[in-house]
Design a protein that fits this description.
By secondary structure, this protein is an alpha/beta fold. It is built from 12 helices and 17 strands. The protein folds into 2 domains: about 200 residues, FAD/NAD(P)-binding domain (3-Layer(bba) Sandwich), CATH 3.50.50; about 150 residues, D-Amino Acid Oxidase, Chain A, domain 2 (2-Layer Sandwich). Helix content is about 30%, strand content about 25%. Bound molecules: flavin-adenine dinucleotide (FAD). The site of flavin-adenine dinucleotide has 42 residues, from helix 2, strand 11 and strand 15.
């Protein structure tokens, strides 16, 4: 698999040969491929949730936009994730924001996260493209007593914010989800939604096409140069001049052509398996319901949900390198974790297994920022970007059009650089070894 920490440039159609449950169940709207023009006012690089939303917001303001992707539309995480549409992003909890920035800012952050779900819903409602969006609850399940205490204490903090939280004791969780082996209680956070993530790409693509964006898939940007007061972007086929460049590549950004941006995050593999469909009896015995999205509190988390066709989706950390992404060991580790979590499900065949690159920020907080004049980026979602990357794409477009963003921490500073970027992979290996993951 393509590896952004090894490759200087992203290969064309890097996603080919990666068969996911979503790609085999979802066809995107027809996209009439444009020829690369010689210049454009705005060039958006990367056609995932961030890039599609940025392109849409620009086009809706009458701007001329070209949207490029190295692969097909939605070639990255946006077609590969678990479809948990959560009111959050990064890895900071409400109490982390509260401690670092005070209650008012933390509540503003929660409001923005709630708005990200409303933003997606608005786009889904104005598109004819179906995406299995269902109202859901996000259940953080404590994996030990210490985390149970922390989660329970968080409940009170959510009062007077845009989100609701309810603590369930271990007895209540055992009643609701009897199949779970370890159980110390859980915190339910709403609003949240579950979605078919690739179909959500379809929703955005449908709108982007109607808004007049020129979509140009299969064109990796392999070089960026300043050129007068603009920029020249090279692809293997041709190059394009742009007044403004929006880098929406998240975890898929190779070492070049934006080395300064690349050094500000860590691409990390996250993996998912999807089982055969469970029988009605198996679902009922475990207490699995399609509108529950569950995640534990381990540092290396496991997350799971029942899909509308009765299959169980189960995700967690992947391999360290792209070369090892498809290694059986990692699939087996996830299968073992599934069996340990649901001891009653020992005989579930895995029908699909795949991985994708998420973007991890040094301080666990995503950012929308301009690293250098005329270049804008949004990344560092740390594996939680279905809702927020969508709103962040719109915020990024607003920033590129000279608008002022809400005064929230992730809009007010750039992503911090990793101190020794070359050692990121070694650090990840050591971290996994410490966690015995
Ligand atoms: C296994 C897995 C499970 C996940 N589950 C969830 C979940 O349940 N909930 C949640 O909120 N988040 C989840 N995420 C994270 C979420 O999918 C991402 O945060 C989100 O999709 C990021 O969208 P994006 O548009 O920024 O990036 P991506 O969708 O990754 O898109 C980046 C695009 O940039 C393109 N690109 C890169 N470099 C170039 C270049 N030089 N030239 C041209 N194109 C380029 C790539 O081809 C790619 O299409 C998960 C991620 C993974 C991998």
């Amino acid at each position: 698999m393509y590896d952004p920490l090894i490759a200087n440039t992203i290969p064309r159609d890097h996603e080919q040969g990666i068969d996911t449950y979503w790609t085999s169940h979802t066809q995107l709207p027809e996209c009439r491929v444009s020829k690369l023009p010689e210049h454009a006012e705005f060039v958006v690089i990367g056609a995932g949730y961030t890039g599609l939303n940025a392109a849409l917001a620009l086009a809706q303001q009458g701007r001329e936009v070209v949207l490029l992707d190295a692969g097909g539309i939605g070639a990255g995480c946006s077609s590969r994730n678990a479809g948990f549409m959560l009111p959050g992003s990064g890895r900071l909890s409400f109490s982390d924001y509260h401690k670092a920035f005070g209650f008012e800012t933390a509540a503003g952050v929660q409001q923005e996260f709630a708005s990200s779900i409303a933003h997606v819903e608005e786009l889904v409602q104005s598109s004819q493209f179906p995406c299995d969006l269902i109202s859901s609850r996000y259940l953080r399940l404590a994996h030990n007593q210490k985390m149970a205490k922390q989660l329970e204490n968080q409940q009170a903090l959510y009062e007077h914010t845009a989100l609701d939280a309810e603590w369930f004791s271990n007895a209540e969780i055992a009643r609701q989800i009897p199949g779970i082996s370890w159980n110390y209680g859980g915190l339910q956070v709403t609003p949240a939604r579950a979605v078919n993530p690739r179909a959500l790409v379809g929703v955005y693509l449908d709108q982007v096409i109607r808004a007049g964006v020129r979509c140009i898939p299969h064109h990796p940007v392999i070089d960026w140069q300043r050129c007068g007061d603009g920029h020249r972007l090279a692809t293997p086929a041709a190059s394009i001049k742009a007044q403004h460049v929006l880098v929406c590549t998240n975890g898929y950004l190779a070492k070049a052509p934006f080395p300064d941006i690349s050094a500000r995050h860590m691409p990390v593999l996250s993996s998912i398996l999807v089982t055969r469909p469970l029988t009605q009896h198996e679902q009922a015995a475990q207490g699995l319901r399609v509108n529950d999205m569950m995640m534990d509190t381990r540092t290396l988390k496991y997350y799971y949900r029942l899909l509308p066709d009765g299959r169980l989706l189960f995700g967690g950390r992947g391999a360290v390198t792209g070369a090892n992404a498809a290694d059986q060991r990692h699939q087996q580790r996830l299968e073992a974790a599934l069996k340990a979590t649901f001891p009653g499900l020992q005989n579930l065949a895995t029908d699909y297994y795949w991985s994708g690159w998420i973007s991890v920020a040094l301080d666990a907080m995503p950012r929308v920022f301009s690293p250098t004049p005329g270049v804008y980026t949004s990344m560092g979602y740390c594996g939680a970007g279905v809702a927020f990357a969508s709103l962040a794409g719109k915020r990024l477009a607003q920033l590129a059009m000279g608008e002022t963003l809400p005064p929230l921490p992730f809009y007010q500073s750039p992503l911090p650089r990793f101190p020794l970027p070359r050692l990121r992979r070694m650090a990840l290996r050591a971290f996994y070894a410490l966690q015995r993951g």
